[in-house]
Amino acid sequence: MNNYGWGLPIQASTFAGQIDSGLWIIHAAMIGIFVLWGIFFTYLLVKYRRRDGVPARRDEHGEIASLIPDLLVMVFEVGLIVFYALPTWRSVKMTMPDAKDALVVEVTAEQFGWNIRYPGPDGKFGRTKPELVHFSNPLGLDRTDPAAADDIVVSNEMHLPVDTKVLIKLRSKDVVHDLFVPEFRLKQDAMPGMDTPMWVEPNRIGHYEMACAQLCGFGHSLMRGDVYVESRTDFEKWLKARAALNPAPPSATSGGF
Amino acid sequence: MSSDHGHDAHELSFLRKYVFSVDHKVIGLQYLITSFVFLLAGFALMMLMRWQLAFPGRAIPLIGPMFSPDLAPNGVMSGEFYNALGAMHGTIMIFLGIVPLGVAAFGNYVLPLQIGAPDMAFPRLNMMSYWLYLPAGTLMLLSFFLPGGAAQSGWTSYPPLSVINPGQTVWLLAMVLLITSSLLGAINFLVTSINMRAPGLTLMRLPVFVWSEMVASVILLLAFPPLEAAAILQLMDRVAHTSFYMPKDLVILGQRYAGSGGGQPLLWQHLFWFLAHPEVYVLVLPAMGIVAEIIANNTRKPLHGYKTIVFSMLGVGVMSFLVWAHHMFISGMTPALSNFFLVTTMIISVPSVAILTCLIFSLQGGSIRYNVPMLFALAFLPLFGIGGLTGLPLGLTVTDIYLHDTYYVIGHFHFVVVTGSIIALFAGVYHWFPKWFGRKMNDRLGVIHFWGSVVSMVGIFTPMMIMGLAGASRRLYDPTAQVHNLIVQPLNVVSTYFAAVLGVFQLPFIWNFFHSMFRGEKTPENPWQATTLEWACPSPPPHGNFAKTPRVYRGPYEYSAPGRATDFWPQTDPS
Amino acid sequence: MNATAIENPDTHSGISNAKLGVWLFLASEIMLFATLFTTYIVLRLSATSWPWGWDALNVPLATLNTVILISSSVTIVMAYARAYDRDVRGFRLWMALTLALSFGFLIVKAFEYGHEFSKGIGPSTSVFYAVYFTMTGLHGIHIIGGIIVNSVLLYMSFVQEDWENPLFLGRVEGAGLYWHFVDIVWIFLFPALYLL
Predict the structure, then answer these.
(1) What are the residue ranges spanned by the domains of chain A?
(2) CB contact under 8 A, A41 and B561
C-alpha cells in the first residue's frame, strides 16, 4: 500500500477531494494568519523593547481597533461555514443514498475486528439473534431465516465495487468503535445499540485500510482490516466465490428449535 | 488549647499552621506543590507512553523489568498498561494538575490579595477543598496498585468500554471526590470575589486575573455537577449493574452482557463533554489572566482593551456551555445537530480571538522588560495562537471527519494546554514567587528553563500535527500495527526525544524553585513595581495579609500615567 | 477618571457570605438534578416500554412522603421564625419536629425500598428502576445531609455561645434554603416517577 506519505493520503472516494480542499483552505489561512501575526508580534517585541529614556506610551486608539482582526476572522469563518461546511456536511453526512440505488453493506464492529455482511442475491439482510453469537457465527446469524441463508459474512475484509455508491450500516456488538478508511476520508463511530448509516463512493481501484479509530480496549491497535476496491466484474466474481463458502441451508428435518 | 478562641498565629501548632491550615496562602502553596507533583507524575506516565509509541515492542529501558508481568511482560508494555497510562495521563494532567494549579493554587494565593481581602470567604471550606483534592488525587494514583489496576478507558471514559473495563470504579470514586472539592472551591472563589473586595475596588477595577478566576469558577460550579451525575450513573452501571449507558443485546468477547439493556452510550458523551469542553476554558482562562497581569506589568502601560478582555471572558464563559457536541460530530449523533455546534464553536472563537488580539496590541507603545515571567507570558501568545488556530479544522464539521481521533487532535489540545496553560502557569510562578517567599527566582536558570521548555514543547507537538494530517490515529499502543501510521512513525521518535529533553529542562526549574525559596535574592514588597493590590502588602504577607484594609482609588493597570514621577500608580495610592 | 475620590466604597453585595454561598451551592445542585432529569427524559424517550408509576411503585406511600416533606418545609420555616424572635425553646421544638418528619420520610422510603427488594426488584431490573432507585437514592442522601445539618443546628441551640453567635440566624436560613431545595426536588421526582 503506497497510499500514505508525509501529507494527506491518496484520495479514493468522491468526497475525499472536497474534504481535502477544506483542509488546504484552512491550513493556508492558518499559516497566513500566523505569519502575519508573527511578523507584527516580532516587530512589536523589537520596536518596543525597553530603552533608557523612552517611556511607555499609553494607547491613543480606542478598544474598537482590537476588534478589527476579529471581524476579519469572523468573516472568514462565516464564509467557510456558509459556502463550505454546511453544503459539504449536508452531502457527506446528512444525505444518504437510497438503498435501492446503492450497494448496501453492514459493518459490525467488535473487540477487535470488523464483520462485513453483504445481503446476498435477495438484497435483504437476514435475522440475527444475540444468543446465536459464536466464534464461528460472529453476528449470530439465524440461517433458518431464508433472508439470512444467503447473507455473506466476511471478517476484516471489505470488497467494494469502484464507482458505485455504497451505503454502509455501521453497528457494534460491544463498545464504541470507529470505522476509519484514510483514503476515503471516511470516519464514523460505531455506536452499540444504534444503526449508524454512512455512505461512500470509491472512485479508485486499490487496497486500503479500515482501522478502528476509537479506543475500544486492550487490542485497539490490532483492530484493522483491508478494503479492496475492485472493478464491478472482479467484485461480482469475489462475491460469488464467497457465497459458495456459505453453509448449505439447513434441511427441514435437521432444523428445529 | 486555651479556652479563648483567639486567632493568634503564634498559638497555632505546626500541624495547624502548615498541614491543616485555614490560611489561604498556606492552602495556595499546598495546592501549588501538590499540583506540581501531580504534573510530574503525569509527565512520568507520558514518558512511558512515549517510549512505547516511539519503540513499540521494545522493553522499557532501566525500569521495564520492575513492572509486574501483567503490566509489562519482559519489560515490554502491554496494551492494557498503555491504555491505563493514557487514561491516567489525561486525568492527572487535567483534573489533578492544571486545574488545581491554575484555579486553586494561584486563585487561593493571589485572588484574596488582589482584592484586598484578609482571607477567603470560607477558610475552613477552603481547607476542606484541599483535603478532598489530595485524597482524591492519591486514590487516583494509587489505583495503579489496586486490584484491577488503573482506569484504562481513556480520560473520556466512554461507555460501554468503561463499564466493562477493570479499574474504572476507583477512577469514578476519585472523580466524585475531586468534583466535590472543585465545587467547594468554586463557591469559595465566587463569594470571596463578590463580597470581600476592598472598598473602592469595583468590578471594573478588578485585575483581569480575578475576572478569569470568577469566570472559571462559574464554569466549574455549573459544569461539574452534570459530570458528577454522569459519574454516579456510570458507577451505578458498574456496581449495581444498572444499564444507564448499556444498550440491549451487547455481546462482549462472545459473552452476552447480563444487564437489562435500554441505556444510551451517547448520553455519557453528551454529559461528559458538557463538562469537559467548558473545562478547557477552566484550563485556559486563569492562564490568560496571569498573562494579562504580567504583560501589563512588563510593558509598563495599561492593558489594551481591558473592557474587551473582561467581556470576552464572560462571553467565553457563557458560550462554553453551548459547544460541547463539537467533540461528537462523528459519534453517531444526528448529523443535523452538528451544524448547530459548528456555528456555536465558530462564535466562541470570536471572544477568544479578541482576548489574544488585545494582549498583543498591549505590547504596542510599551517599554517591554524582558524578565523571566515576561518571556513565558510572551511565548504564550504565539504558541497558544497555534493551539487556537489548529482548533479551526477540528471545529469545522467536514474537516473533522478526517482529523477526528488522529494525532492532529492531540497536537492541537497540547498546544492549547501545554504551550498555553502550562507556559502561563510557569510565568505566574516566576512572577508571584517574590510575593510568596520574599525572594526572587534565579534569572539565568529561569532563562534556561524557558528556552529549553519552549523549544522542546514545540518539538513534541509539531510532529503530531504532521502525523495527524497524514492520518495517524491516536490512542494506539502499537501504532505500527496499522499500515496507515507507518510512514510517519519516525515522527513519534522525534516527539519522544523532545519529551525527554523537556523533562531534563524541568530540572533547573525544580532546583531554582526550592533553592530560591531559601537562598534566592531577597526582594522588597513590590519588586516588579506593580500596581495591583497583592504588591501592597509585605512579602510573604502575614496572617490577615494587610495591616489595615486597603482602599482602592483606580483601575488595576495605571502604568506610565502622564505627569507622574514614577511609571506605576498603585491602586492603593491616594494621591 | 476621577483619580482621588473613591467612587463606590461599598463593594459588598449586601448578601451575607453564608447566604450567597448556599445559593451558589444550590445552583450547582440544580445542575446535578437537572442532569438526572435529563437522563430520565432521554432514557424514557428512547425506551420501547416504560412502566406506569401506579403499576410499578407504591403511590399511596409516596403521597404520604410528599405530605411529610412539605410539612417539614413548613416546620423549618417556623424554626427560623422562632430563631429570628430569639425564642430558643420554640426553635428547638420546631427544629426537632423538622427532624422527626425527615426521619419519617426516610422510614417510609425504607419500607418502599424494602417492599421492592422483597419482590426481587432492584436497580438492575430495568432502566425504569435504575432511574427510580438512583434518583430517589440520591435524593435520600440529600435528606440525610439535611438531617445532619439540622441536627447540628439543634445541638448548637443548646450551646449558649453558638445560640448567641450573630451568625446563627444566617446558618438556620442557609439550612432552610437547602431543605426547601430538597423538598422541591421531591416535588419534581414524585410526579415524574410515580404519576406520569
Answers:
(1) 16-49+62-94, 103-244
(2) no
